[in-house]
Amino acid sequence: MAHNLKRISFGLSVSSEDYLSYYQGVASKVRLRADNGQIIVFPASRLKPFLTHTGVHGRFVITFDENNKFVSLERLL
Predict the structure, then answer these.
(1) In angstroms, rounded to a whole number, what is the distance separating the alpha carbons of residues 26 and 5?
(2) CA 37/CA 25 separation, integer angstroms
(3) Rounded CA separation 58/1 (Å)
(4) In this model, does residue 1 exceed pLDDT 60?
(5) How do residues 23-47 score in pLDDT, each as one tens digit?
(6) DSSP string covering 13-77, please?
(7) Residue 42 in contact with residue 56, Cβ under 8 Å?
(8) All residues at 6 or more sequence positions from 51 whose CB lies less than 8 Å from its CB, including other chains
(9) For residues 24 and 77, what is the distance between their CA atoms, to the nearest angstrom?
C-alpha cells in the first residue's frame, strides 16, 4: 500500500484571527494550491496540532492514500 501514497507539498500562512473562523465552525475546510499547482482540500481540524498564538505558518507535506483519503500532515523543518 505504501507505494500508492501521494505526497503533496505546500506553504501555508494563516493568521490566528483567520484560523478562529475554522475553530468557530464558520469554515470547516482548507482549500489551497499546492506547489505542483494542484488544488487540495482538507479539514481545517488537521491544522490544529500546528496552531500557535500567531496562527499556522510553514511548509507542509500532506499524504493521501490511493483513494485520496487523508493519511498524514507534516510540517517540514
Answers:
(1) 31
(2) 28
(3) 28
(4) no
(5) 676 778 889 999 999 999 998 889 9
(6) EEEHHHHHHHHTTS--EEEEE-TTS-EEEEEGGGGGGG-BTTEEEEEEEEEE-TTS-EEEEEE--
(7) no
(8) 16, 19
(9) 29
